[in-house]
User: Fold these one by one.
Assistant:
Number 1:
Amino acid sequence: MPSLNTAAVGKSFDEKTDFFDKSVLPFPAQILVWFSGKDLMASLDGSLKLGRKNPGDMRAAIRYWMRGNPDKVIQYLPEWGKLVQAIREALDQV
């Protein structure tokens, strides 16, 4: 097995860290582009879990709320409304 070039690995790590420090973290909207929701949920500290035992419980609560309130989900997340509209239009053409 070939050995790793530690200098190249270190340089690559530094470049990625610099990119995230300058281009992602200062802009909260970019965080969701680069990190999945489950990653963000897992990183929540205790004060942000809203009384849930763990991120899985919080995801479940959000999922059940979304299923029970589809109109509010579309209101709060307009991109989901656009997705629903696109799916409906596609199904109308079938």
Number 2:
Amino acid sequence: MDTTHWIPSQPYAARAEPGKHDFSGNCVPRQDGSSLYPSQETFSVGVFEWLRRGRKGDGKCCKAGPVKVRIKGLVADPAAVLAKAKEIAAALDAGTYTGPKNVKV
């Protein structure tokens, strides 16, 4: 499972680009497949657009905008959720996403 997207040592700012879409989630299962909460069966990630931070949009840093699409899936199969999030983020970047706001994997 590719979890490099969730490594805390890779700060958001390192991959932030205004106008581009990315995803995040606090309850993504660990690399060993365990969950932060033992009784947790599902988790979700939100796909959002990076926005400029600062006055008049001229700030050097970015911030996460509101979630545009939420992807929910099983803790037992986090790779499917992360793959779908990457796919939707790419479609939003291309301007071709026409799917629902909430997606179950």
Number 3:
Amino acid sequence: MRERTFFSVVAAVQLALTIALTAYTFGAGMRRFDVGGDATVAEVIGQGILTALSFPLVAVLEHVPGVRFPGLWGYIPFAANASLWGLAAVWVRRWLRARRGGVRRTR
């Protein structure tokens, strides 16, 4: 698989998972307000995975005062974070290929 395609697939999957888990954990949390119950195991696991997927950019931006993205601009940090994950995946893939001795350069 070419590097651009690999990058795009990793970034798209990461972005889709992040958005889906955000919607799920938010919805599950709102349902709990009705009954006042504890978080389910699925919700806790989903929140844990979401926290991991939000690293590094989204997690850092949450702690910077005054940095907010209103409306649809709120997707920008998630897309940038997905791009970082895609780059990291490409670098790891290159490193693994170089380590095996099977370096193959693609355009």
